[in-house]
Design a protein that fits this description.
Structural class: alpha/beta
Shape: globular
Distance between the termini: 43 Å
Low-confidence stretches: 1-19, 113-121
Radius of gyration: 22 Å
Mean pLDDT: 82
Largest sheet: 6 strands, mixed
Number of helices: 13
Number of strands: 21
Strand content: 15-25%
Number of domains: 2
Length: 378
Amino acid sequence: MKIIFGSIFFLVLLGFFFVSYADNQEIPEWVKNNAGWWANDQISDSVFIDGIEFLIKEKIIHVSNIEQNESQTDDIPEWVKNNAGWWANDQISDSVFIDGIEFLIKENIIIVYDEMKIIQNLKEYEYRGYSPLFRTFAYEKDLIFVNGEMIPLELQFDFKLDKSEIYNEIKIGEEDERVAIIIPIFTASAYWEPGFYTFYRGECDQEFHGVLFRDEDCLTTDIIYDKPLGYSGSSNAVKILELLGYEMITDIDVHKDPSILESFDKIIVLHNEYVTKKEFDVITSHPKVMFLYPNALYAEIDFDQELSKITLIRGHNYPEITIRNGFDWEYENTHPYEFDNVCDDWNFYEIDYGVMLDCYPENIIFTDKLLLKMIKEF
């Protein structure tokens, strides 16, 4: 598989690369865990590559000046995965593992783009069959190759010319109620590492880049504005619902001005797992709310607007292992619904001030006409 690695953190000089390891820098434990899981096919190539991106961004490994060969294969050699597994188990050194990463870049299996090339390289690739409702495509920079087939890390959507009758049924018109979609910026940021999930796995009490981190250091993380929302941030739902005419606001907007929701007839909550108390209060006070994703309103965070950081306050088994929902919310519905992302037999059920969906719809939001129609008619 060929991995096209799009990142603003790489400098590409006429196609020449060299990868080196900074001996005085310690590689975070979560990157090692990712390598082990990748070696055992427990996580995708893209998640593993996120760890490599982190190492280069933090200057733990450096990219410069070695000629790339013409690739003879699109497949990652088995020995590279073996190295990753051995490295995760401390059977080989950091430098031997980095040799494997150098090989992937040198052999043109990992292709690195610089910032300018990402901006310019927006060639589109169609994905027929992904959706009967929408034109589905990806940008070249967001592709990986698996067994010779192009697979998108992030999908894009547009209307199909022959589906106008369907769109009349699912699009929002001027005569319809005002509906707000709350984009889960806080939640998308909480999932980037090192951060909350580094802490949940018990991997935070260690040195990162020569600095001793304590648990409290991982409980505060930056707001991430320049990366895709991803699966945890309801990326597909945000794109589809915006395309259909829904008004978009972020949870940052809601926190700054809770009264913003008063002008909407109904609001739709996505995977807004991490929210502030202000946000929780105003959402649960609204008379008409659709909770389109389970696991919403799960953990309380503090938002430092000046520093653009969030800090975990309560929930997700913190500060006590027995605490699940940080707000002790009576409509908590994480288990088992969050883990049903197939949604073969989905249903909405009623609560006092709205409805909740009983599965995680990220993989069907762009294929299911009935779901989109019910969202509109709610």
